[in-house]
Design goal:
Length: 238
């Protein structure tokens, strides 16, 4: 795979090194001479130029790359690079770094962004995930589909403690992707029993009612007086 990385700062260089270690071809672009630390990523091709210029992207042969990564510390630059890559060069995949969470709403298809990565948002999610028990924490959002990856640590008073996965009345468009128990990730089956402290990784569709999901996972009863658990004999919520 051929990848162009715009931004030769610590983030861009780290991305480039990882890609090179997986045998991908990488070109790094930056307009600041001080950022040209070629020896630190010696196997990459380097280009000292302004990536917001069409001539620069042409010189970097962006039209031949599979992915462009806009990883500068300037959100405006990352948006312009993504838009030019998508509209002028037809790059199949654009990944853009979001530096200011207030700008996240702009990083979508209208600006040519396929995947937006917000470092502050991810770090916030990791902090919340580390300390929150019984709260849904959004780990990641897929910008094209609108699907979310959510995490919840089951508290001691969850109605699902001791319940088999196959008995849980999950809301529509909700999938339990993994259970992390201690340090052990588990691929959930219908026969796995949920325990106190289990970290549940859940994938939800764009229109899922998170409040309803939280009621199933945490609240003793739902709005109808049920428990979010399916009776295996009748197949109905109990």
């Amino acid at each position: 795979m051929r990848v162009v990385v715009v931004g030769a700062g610590s983030v861009g260089r780290s991305i480039a090194r990882e890609l090179l270690s997986h045998d991908h071809e990488v070109t790094i672009i930056d307009k600041q001479p001080a950022a040209m630390r070629v020896a630190q990523v010696a196997d990459a091709d380097w280009l000292l130029a302004d990536a917001c210029e069409l001539s620069t992207l042409s010189e970097a042969k962006v039209d031949e790359c599979d992915v462009i990564v806009a990883a500068t510390g300037d959100d405006k630059v990352n948006l312009v690079v993504s838009l030019l890559a998508k509209t002028e060069f037809g790059v199949p995949r654009t990944v853009a770094r979001v530096n200011n969470p207030k700008n996240e709403w702009m990083f979508d298809e209208s600006w040519g962004v396929d995947v937006a990565v917000s470092t502050p948002r991810i770090m916030t999610s990791m902090v919340e995930e580390a300390v929150a028990v019984g709260d849904l924490v959004r780990i990641f959002t897929f910008h094209q589909s609108g699907a979310d990856i959510l995490e919840l640590t089951l508290p001691p008073d969850s109605p699902l403690i001791g319940t088999r996965v196959g008995q849980v009345a999950w809301p529509q468009d909700t999938v339990l992707a993994a259970i992390v128990r201690g340090t052990q990730p588990i691929t959930p089956s219908i026969d796995d029993t949920l325990e106190v402290g289990d970290e549940l990784l859940i994938v939800t569709g764009r229109d899922v009612d998170e409040a309803a999901l939280l009621r199933v996972l945490v609240d003793p009863t739902d709005d109808d007086g049920g428990t979010g658990v399916i009776d295996e004999t009748t197949g109905l919520p109990v």
